[in-house]
Write a structure and sequence with these properties.
By secondary structure, the chain is of the alpha+beta class. It has 2 domains: about 5-110; about 145-250, PAS domain (Beta-Lactamase). The chain is built from 6 helices and 7 strands, in the order H-H-H-H-E-E-H-E-H-E-E-E-E. It has helices spanning about 5-35, 40-85, 95-100, 105-145, 160-165, 185-200; strands at about 145-150, 155-160, 180, 205-210, 215-225, 230-240, 250. The strands form 2 sheets. The protein has a 5-stranded antiparallel β-sheet with strand order 2-1-6-5-4, with helices on both faces. A two-stranded antiparallel sheet has the order 3-7. A hairpin with a 4-residue loop joins strand 4 and strand 5 (about 215-225).
Length: about 250
């Protein structure tokens, strides 16, 4: 429901003030016309002036406090809505915000609602595209013929491809590289290299480890992921084993 705009409300209150002054003028003229002597006329005009001046004073006090209060409350509500949107809260009760608002602010809130609808649609499309892109990357990584692990800078594993899971069935996305222990000395040295790369933020270029006991050989490559500020946020590692048969099932607690 459309309410009066703030400007119309202001103009209406000023018009009432003018009307009060006009009534005062008419009453004074009527009193002058009905006066029988100068003394009673002066007394009547004095009474009229006092009454109307007091009424005008009270009315001005009401206008002085009401208009700023009304304006401040409307602006404060719009500020609250903008703050909620800026904080990522898109599930707002816009309809209740329109109640008891002037038409100017109703139009502004409706414009915010339209903007919010666009943001929600855009956010949904963006989420879908991110999910599709994430799926493409996951499928691509799973098709690689090498073992792939993606970890955060703290060592938390966020993605492992199928080759990694086949070779290290005791390791999953809930694991942390810094907490992994192996009985096999060969795998311990391999993961020590990954931990060192994460700790110092260094890339790994064709690092080769060989196990002389059974001829196992692995080629390690690693790339540090950095944010816009250039700080390390994680890493991607590939481990190309010469023998892809599982051999690291002995994970220690």
């Amino acid at each position: 429901m459309k309410r009066q705009s703030f400007n119309k409300r202001y103009h209406a209150m000023i018009s009432i003030l003018y009307l009060i002054i006009l009534v005062q003028f008419i009453v004074v003229l009527y009193t002058i016309g009905q006066a029988r002597d100068i003394y009673s006329l002066a007394s009547d005009i004095q009474s009229i002036m006092i009454i109307f001046l007091f009424g005008i004073f009270v009315y001005l006090v009401i206008i002085y406090n009401y208009l700023p209060f009304r304006l401040h409350r409307s602006v404060e509500r719009v500020q609250d809505l903008v703050e909620e949107i800026s904080n990522g809260n898109y599930q707002l009760d816009i309809e209740s915000s329109l109640l008891d608002q002037d038409r100017d602010f109703q139009d502004l809130i409706l414009a915010l609602q339209k903007m919010l609808d666009i943001i929600i649609r855009f956010d949904g499309v963006k989420s879908d595209k991110i999910y599709e892109h994430h799926q493409r990357i996951n499928q691509l990584i799973d098709l690689l013929p090498v073992t792939v692990a993606i970890a955060t800078v703290n060592g938390d594993l966020v993605y492992l491809n199928d080759h990694f899971r086949d070779r290290f069935p005791g390791v999953d996305e809930q694991s942390n590289i810094n907490e992994l222990l192996f009985k096999d000395r060969f795998y311990t040295e391999v993961f020590d290299e990954l931990r060192e790369a994460l700790r110092f933020g260094n890339n790994i270029y064709d690092k080769v480890f060989e196990d002389e006991s059974d001829g196992m050989r692995v080629l390690i490559k690693g790339s540090i992921i950095r944010n816009r500020k250039g700080n390390a946020s994680g890493a991607v590692f590939t481990l190309d084993f010469s023998d892809q048969a599982p051999g690291a099932n002995e994970k220690q607690d």
